[in-house]
Specification:
about 240 residues; mainly alpha; 2 domains; two-stranded parallel sheet; 2 strands
């Protein structure tokens, strides 16, 4: 494909990705009240003590609902967005590699949703309970609704991205940058980094919470070693004279 043909293909894939986001947003708009009341407000209601959320702007809730519906639409349409991305990359892949596109889209979506679920069900409740109980009892914690939802959605999206480590390893291995030998050699260094990350994203000096975060991150690292090993073995097999 020429340069202009690549640009045209990129334009088509972006349009289809935006169409998917638009459809996802419209679908989520019908469930906006449930998303806000039953999903996003639940961590604040069930924190100990419960957090009080307030709106400070006349149009605050309207803008908030629009933002939440858009973010929800982006999350719902992630499989389609990833699929369009891989369809754009497809011409650069070998015929044997193209058959893995569906699997790659599935696992990319799976790890993102797994990370989002980890943030929502484990990290966010721990963080809100710590923040709501911290400080002077004479200071009442009444949280701005924009700040609260920004924190919730930010944590969910951040955890989803972090859990894409195996897929990032897949990319780096495909480019020849990452090898299983390198990852095994620096496993101890990776453990230290994982513990530092766990300490940074967990609230307060809670060792149990830090370990609870560090364990899945370490498992992701081990999964990434397996992914890199598979990619490198497949690459060497194709490059061998008998292939």
């Amino acid at each position: 494909m020429s340069f202009w043909e690549h640009l045209e293909e990129l334009r088509v894939r972006l349009i289809w990705a935006l169409v998917g986001i638009g459809i996802g947003t419209i679908i989520c708009a019908f469930f906006a009240d449930d998303i806000v009341n039953k999903f996003l407000l639940a961590p604040a209601i069930h924190s100990n003590p419960p957090l009080k959320i307030q709106n400070l702007k006349p149009y605050g809730q309207l803008m908030l609902y629009m933002e939440i519906v858009l973010i929800a639409g982006i999350i719902v349409s992630i499989p389609n967005t990833l699929y369009q991305f891989w369809k754009f990359v497809e011409p650069a892949l070998f015929p044997r590699e193209r058959k893995y596109i569906t699997s790659i889209v599935f696992f990319s979506t799976f790890f993102f949703l797994l990370g989002g679920a980890f943030g929502y069900f484990i990290l966010i409740p721990k963080a809100l309970s710590f923040f709501s109980g911290f400080g002077s009892p004479d200071i009442q914690n009444i949280i701005d609704v924009q700040a609260y939802f920004g924190f919730i959605t930010g944590m969910i999206l951040a955890c989803g991205v972090v859990f894409e480590l195996p897929m990032l390893s897949f990319f780096l291995a495909k480019l020849g940058i990452l090898s299983p030998q390198f990852m095994r050699k620096y496993r101890r260094h990776a453990v230290i980094v994982i513990l530092l990350v766990a300490a940074a994203i967990t609230p307060g000096p809670d060792v149990a919470s830090q370990i609870m975060v560090a364990i899945p991150l370490y498992l992701l690292y081990e999964i990434s070693i397996f992914v890199v090993k598979f990619v490198r073995a497949d690459k060497l097999k194709k490059e061998s004279p008998s292939a």
